[in-house]
Design brief:
The protein is α/β, with parallel strands linked by helices. It has one domain: Vaccinia Virus protein VP39 (Rossmann fold, 3-Layer(aba) Sandwich), CATH 3.40.50. It is 33% helix and 23% strand. The chain has six helices and seven strands, in the order ααβαβαββαβαββ. It has a seven-stranded mixed sheet. The radius of gyration is 16 Å and the shape is globular. The model has no long low-confidence stretch (mean pLDDT 91).
Length: 222
């Protein structure tokens, strides 16, 4: 994982999320509305092969497999944290014939063949990556997506209302002082990484539950 001055290294991120473990699900108070919006606009009900970057505890994958994806669809998730991959694998044990979890080394190179999936998902991951690694996510998504496939993203972002601007500013201040206090995450703008010559914007929105701003972005591979 390439590193900017303030972003966590792969080993630091792994150590943090190994320790954080199941507590990641406690962030649902602001994440769930954004994920609801993503599901409503990403066409998962027509997807057959889904790849998720940074699967965490497997909570989002379980939701997709339990009631959103077609029964014939398959899922592959990856994470740098062995704790998270164990939690996700245990959570998805009932879907062992359709779902698989793998651990990565932090290098932004997806363990997926060229042009083989129709959805790439990344929820609250790009906001902890360096600019270079975030760009590599888009490059790798282009490589593995089928023509017309979709890149489905959610991230912390800049505020768009008065309360969310305050929250975003405070979050960024903490990040600059000590990024590990916020898990290496900071507000970013996903759309700035999307090359319009390679991606067509299908949907973009910002939601601000409890003043925490999240950007939802669905892109289609050209």
């Amino acid at each position: 994982m390439a590193r900017n001055q303030s972003t966590l290294s792969s080993s630091e991120a792994q150590a943090y999320y190994d320790k954080f473990g199941k507590k990641q699900d406690s962030q649902g108070f602001y994440e769930e509305p954004a994920l609801d919006d993503l599901i409503a606009h990403a066409g998962f009900r027509e997807a057959q092969k889904v790849f998720e970057i940074g699967c965490g505890t497997g909570k989002f994958a379980e939701r997709l497999l339990a009631g959103v994806l077609p029964a014939s669809a398959t899922y592959l998730g990856c994470d740098v944290s062995p704790t998270m991959t164990k939690l996700a694998a245990d959570r998805l044990a009932d879907y062992v014939d359709r779902a698989r979890i793998v651990r990565t080394d932090g290098t932004v190179r997806f363990p997926v063949a060229d042009h083989s999936v129709d959805r790439v998902v990344s929820n609250y991951v790009l906001d902890l990556l360096s600019k270079e690694d975030a760009g590599s996510v888009f490059t790798e998504a282009q490589r593995i997506l089928l023509p017309g496939g979709k890149l489905c993203l959610v991230s912390l972002t800049k505020g768009v209302t008065a309360p969310s601007r305050v929250v975003s500013s405070l979050w960024m201040t903490v990040f600059r002082l000590r990024p590990s206090l916020v898990g290496g995450c900071r507000p970013i703008r996903l759309e700035t990484h999307a090359d319009p010559e390679r991606w067509q914007t299908v949907y973009r929105n910002v939601v601000t539950p409890f003043g925490v701003p999240s950007e939802i972005l669905v892109l289609e591979r050209k």
